[in-house]
Amino acid sequence: MKDSPSAYYIHCFAHQLQLTLVAIAKKHLDVEDFFDNVSNVLNVVGGSFKRRDLLRDHQAKKLEQLFESGEVQKGQGLHQERGLQRPSDTRWGSHFKTLDSFIVIFSSIVHVLEMIELEGSTSSDRNQAEYLLTKIKTFKFIFVLHLMLKVLAMSNELSMILQKKNQDIVNAVEFLNITKKRLQDMRENGWESLLHDVSSFCDVHDILIPKLDESYFPGKSKRKSSGVSYAHHLCVEVFFVVIDVQLQELNDRFDVVSSDLLLGMGSLNPVNSFCNFDKGKIMTLAKCYPSEFDDGKIRDLSYQLDTFIIHMRSGNPKFSNLQ
Known about the structure:
This protein is elongated. It has two domains: 19-254, no CATH class; 257-313, no CATH class. The protein has helices spanning 13-27, 29-45, 49-69, 92-104, 106-119, 123-136, 139-162, 169-189, 191-204, 230-253, 256-267, 271-274, 279-287, 295-313. It starts with 12 loop residues before the first helix and ends in a 10-residue tail after the last helix. α4 runs antiparallel to α7, α7 (139-162) packs parallel to α10 and α8 (169-189) packs antiparallel against α10 (230-253). With 323 residues, it is mostly helical. It comes from Solanum pinnatisectum (tansyleaf nightshade). This is Zinc finger MYM-type protein 1-like. InterPro entries: AtLOH3-like (IPR055298), RNaseH-like_sf (IPR012337).
């Protein structure tokens, strides 16, 4: 910055995306508590070869039962074995995979915890397993599990694009905008479908579904009401807030200046005869450097760009008069 006052610093987009997840966990206690419980389950269930074998065996038996009942069809490449892998602190997609597996093999996770609760080698192991069962077999935990999986899923494709070595900046910024639009659409139209998915999951796994129109009691208190219904708490204080924080973080961490800079650079990429050329984006890029482009130079640039792209696309490699 001392050498070039006009310089801009753009943080790694993939890491910025990861930081939005960190922000949600830090800014929402329910989400923070949720990830703590998921982490503890991963530690306990994957704590030994015996427990991991128990998890795999239960999955295999469960799948065989589904085959016999006709609920699922056999096929090559289908129904691959799922495991529980600790998510990486620096990879958004790993959190998505962890939560996706958590839902798919939930009954096997519960089975292993129940076995530890009954047959654990120490009282500490048995007590921990009992505690985790009381945490994950609740409507609230399942609600946050499905909510965070949906939020992560909407950004998973963006995450993969941002990690590519041959990253297409124009495509990445476009996917960023698509992700924000999908999150906004989920906020406006996704409540009912999310609630249906959570309720159906709880029905299948014998998890008590609370009466959503009754008062919500925060924490362990069963006496002091929050003054709102359980449905209001889940919708307004969890569903809306989580999505709003995610949208705000995306807007803050991928700000307009960074996007304009990258889109402008992408528009100057000569690949495929300047297929991403966009005069408006290049003009916006130039305006980010007022010390280099005064009003006169901006006007000159506009005329030069019109001439430049015509000559380059007409196959005239000798034209290089763009200053």
